[in-house]
Design brief:
The chain is of the alpha/beta class. It contains 11 helices and 8 strands. It binds adenosine-5-diphosphoribose.
């Protein structure tokens, strides 16, 4: 019975001195942000990840890829954090230091909801950086408009500050996420298919280090087998119920 499992997990939340939460695109779905792997509605049902989320794809078609990220940035202007984001932020405010939030999302909605210390392991949709190692002539502020903006002296191009397939995760951020996974007593895994590593491995690390792992997802995920409990439902519905003060 889901109701019994919900009560059990609520008890785990109350007991745990340290909780780590790993979120994915599903947590923003109820704000109106598309996920990646959901059939029909996910971005990867429409585009090939190789084209839109790799350095090779960007070098092959910089304009197309840049414009897609610009479109995603614009989409974020019209959306707001949902009850799931807000429940996480409220818990952090009510229990300082007890909840570490690790997110694969680049959309900034956790931060806009008021969460602090968010470990963004896949970068930031709104940041830009140079595609090639900046030469002395390249300063972000001097980039000339274009699609993508570029350095008019050497031709270097700006690219979005997200982690693409095949790229390293930001080291210090990922190390902090690993520490949280290893030190927590409970890990909540919400809104992720659990298909992308190393981020998905954080749940397995937490489990191996002795934490309880709970998956919150309306559909099966690749981390269900690592979970002590699987709660079927959306994050905007379930996170407020689990984390109520
Ligand atoms: N609440 C909770 N979960 C939901 C909801 C919802 N309202 N709606 C969908 N989901 C679930 C789906 O069932 C799916 O398991 O969210 C998950 C979304 O999975 P993905 O689209 O694969 O997103 P994510 O796991 O975050 O992807 C990881 O892949 O393409 C890359 O870099 C991108 O960070 C992303 C990474």
């Amino acid at each position: 019975m889901q109701e019994d499992r919900l009560d059990t997990v609520r008890g785990w939340v109350q007991e745990a001195r340290h909780i780590a939460v790993l979120t994915g695109a599903g947590v923003s779905a109820e704000s109106g942000v598309p996920t990646f792997r959901d059939a029909q509605t996910g971005y990867w049902a429409q585009f090939r990840a190789e084209d839109m989320a790799t350095e090779e794809g960007f070098r092959a078609h910089p304009e197309r890829v840049w414009n897609w990220y610009q479109h995603r940035r614009q989409l974020m202007e019209g959306v707001a954090p949902n009850a799931g984001h807000l429940a996480l932020a409220a818990f952090q405010a009510a229990h300082p230091g007890r909840l570490t939030l690790i997110t694969q999302n680049v959309d900034g909605l956790h931060q806009r909801a008021g969460s602090t210390g968010v470990l963004c392991v896949h970068g930031d949709l709104f940041a830009n950086r140079w595609l090639d190692t900046p030469r002395n002539c390249c300063h972000i502020d001097d980039a000339v408009a274009g699609s993508p903006p570029h350095c008019d002296r050497c031709g270097n191009r700006l690219r979005p500050g997200v982690v693409w397939f095949g790229e390293m995760l930001p080291l210090a951020v990922f190390e902090a996420a690993e520490r949280a996974a290893q030190d927590c007593e409970l890990m909540l895994v919400a809104g992720t298919a659990g298909a992308v590593y190393p981020a998905a491995g954080l749940a397995r690390q937490a489990r191996a280090a002795g934490a309880r792992v709970v998956v919150v997802n309306p559909a099966p995920s690749e981390l269900d087998d690592a979970a002590d409990a699987v709660l079927r439902g959306t994050s905007a519905t379930l996170l407020p119920q689990l984390l109520q003060a």
